[in-house]
Design a protein that fits this description.
By secondary structure, the chain is mainly alpha-helical. It has one domain (10-202): Catalytic domain of cyclic nucleotide phosphodiesterase 4b2b. The protein is 61% helix and 0% strand. The chain has 9 helices and no strands. α2 (30-44) packs antiparallel against α3 and α4 packs antiparallel against α5. It is globular. The model has no long low-confidence stretch (mean pLDDT 95).
């Protein structure tokens, strides 16, 4: 594994582990975080991050708050990241505004285009790492789809299926699923195959 750019204080690690281990999470859990951090490592191994500390901390906190009934998960996650950064002198050199900005971008995943992050390679790659599941091997993608359905179990089935289909169709219709060329080259074909299969299953 690539050496991570900063150490996680023990109290932060415990709080994050508790958050990502909440029982209502079926997909946005510790496994998802581990997968995202795996992509961080893959890109870091090629020297692909300009400000790795900020990206790494943003990844740690990007789904720290997750409640499908709320619309402010990203804002609350960003606020928690700011609180954690302010509370640990060892993290004083990390730009809290940059961390919060990256986390807040995840609220607009499905509508962002490469032009929206032009000139900000770290942001594009950060967002692509979070969306890497869409281009995962078919079996893992299918697990993801089932897990999302579990997380939205309180939503009436027909309403969930219609909303999920609309989201997947919007993603599939985008000229680019992945914002940066690095991930686009690796995952676009698999992602489009997964999306076509999932959309067909929802009709």
């Amino acid at each position: 594994m690539t050496t991570r750019p900063v150490e996680i204080p023990d109290d932060v690690s415990r709080r994050l582990a508790a958050a990502y281990g909440e029982p209502h999470r079926a997909y946005h859990d510790a496994r998802h975080l581990d997968e995202v951090l795996g992509w961080f490592d893959a890109i870091a191994a090629e020297g692909g991050w300009l400000r790795p500390a900020e990206v790494y901390v943003a990844m740690l906190f990007h789904d720290a708050v997750y409640d499908v009934a709320r619309k402010d998960n990203e804002a609350r996650s960003a606020a928690w990241a700011r609180e954690a950064l302010a509370g640990h002198p060892a993290w004083a050199a990390i730009d809290a505004d940059r961390v919060a900005h990256l986390i807040l971008l995840t609220a607009r995943h499905a509508s962002l285009t490469p032009a929206d992050v032009a000139g900000d390679r770290d942001a594009a790659r950060f967002l692509d790492c979070d969306m890497a599941i869409v281009g995962a091997p078919a079996a893992r993608f299918d697990e993801y789809e089932r897990a999302i359905a579990v997380e939205y179990g309180s939503v009436p089935r027909d309403a969930f299926r219609a909303g999920r289909r609309a989201f997947l169709e919007r993603l599939a219709a985008a000229p680019r699923i992945y914002l940066d060329d690095w991930m686009h080259a690796r995952l676009d074909a698999a992602a489009r195959g997964n999306l076509a299969r999932a959309i067909a299953a929802l009709h």
